Amino acid sequence: MKRKRLIRVAPSINAIDFNNEEILLKALKDIEKAGANFVHIDVMDGKFVKSKTFDYTFVDKIRDKTHLLFDVHLMVKDPDNDIDKYIKAGADIVTVHYEACKDVVSVLKKIKSRNVLAGIAISPNTPVLKIKDIIESKLVDVITVMSVEPGASGQKFIPKMAEKISEIRELNKRVFIEIDGGVNLSNASMLRKLGVNILVSGSCIFKSTDMKKTINALKGKGFFNQVKDFFN
Ligand code: DX5
Ligand code: ZN
Predict the structure, then answer these.
(1) 55 is an active site residue
(2) Tens of pLDDT along 4-60?
(3) Is 155 a member of any domain?
(4) What DSSP character marks residue 161?
């Protein structure tokens, strides 16, 4: 029998008021209780993307507030010199943008050599073919398909980006594929079928009234969701 692929869910705390400590700590506890697998941490530098969020000091500050793994998404220009700071602060996956690095291969090598998972993200305008060699190599553990322009939570999913999942899966059967941006209960089932492994979701999770139910539905867990998948 074919083993069922596990779907991991990574709530993005970019969707909440992360500067409010009370809200932040509650959110971390809530997603942990609700069955999330990672905390997705969006670092924005005000250069690679217009918005600015926080740096490694934030990661350090929240590291002991949850048992969840940290999925750190660096929307940062030339992240090379910061990598070690994020790892020291507690990142479990460090993802850099293909478009933001001068020498992405050397950045990925550095991440991998530190024994954490290395990720590469591609913005909507970057075709999969641009990173074909990297996908086929052993340099990366996670490929993040951006399904919105990087920079903000709450944007609409760009349907065409889903095709990138199949393209990546063709090139590498084992790599973890993550999709980030506008993921919700209407597109999750389609994304699972295409072969995604990690669903990042901000607004859909934090706006829901029952986080556990929402996370389970994103994972396609439970009888009702399985029946829905069958007919989709
Ligand atoms: C966009 C970020 C996403 C975003 C996801 O730049 O990388 O992680 O916060 O939020 P939603 O799910 O609301 O699109
Ligand atoms: Zn992200």
Answers:
(1) no
(2) 789 999 999 999 999 999 999 999 999 999 999 999 999 999 999 999 999 999 999
(3) yes
(4) G
**In degrees rounded to 5, what are phi and psi of residue 80?**
-40, -50
- Which ligand minimizes its atom distance to the CA of 142? 2
Per the annotation, the verdict on 42 as an active-site residue is yes
Domain membership flag for residue 142: yes
pTM (predicted TM-score): 0.96
CATH number for the domain spanning 73: value is 3.20.20.70
Q: Is residue 1 part of a domain?
A: no
Angle at 28 (CA atoms; ends 25, 30), nearest 5 degrees: 105
42 lines ligand 1 (CB under 6 A): yes
CB neighbour list of residue 106: distance below 8 Å, 6 or more residues apart: 80
- Phi, psi of 126, rounded to the nearest 5 degrees: -95, 120
How far is residue 104's CA from residue 134's CA, in Å, rounded to a whole number? 9
- 71 alpha carbon – ligand 2 mean position (Å): 9
Closest CA to 220 of 211, 212, 229: 229
For residue 156, list its beta bridge partners. none
Q: How far apart are CA 147 and CA 183, in angstroms?
A: 8
Please check whether residue 101 is in contact with residue 80, taking contact to mean a CB–CB distance below 8 angstroms.
yes
Identify the residue whose C-alpha is closest to ligand 1 atom 4. Answer: 153
Contact 69, 38 (CB under 8 A): yes
Alpha-carbon distance of 70 to 89, in angstroms, equals: 10
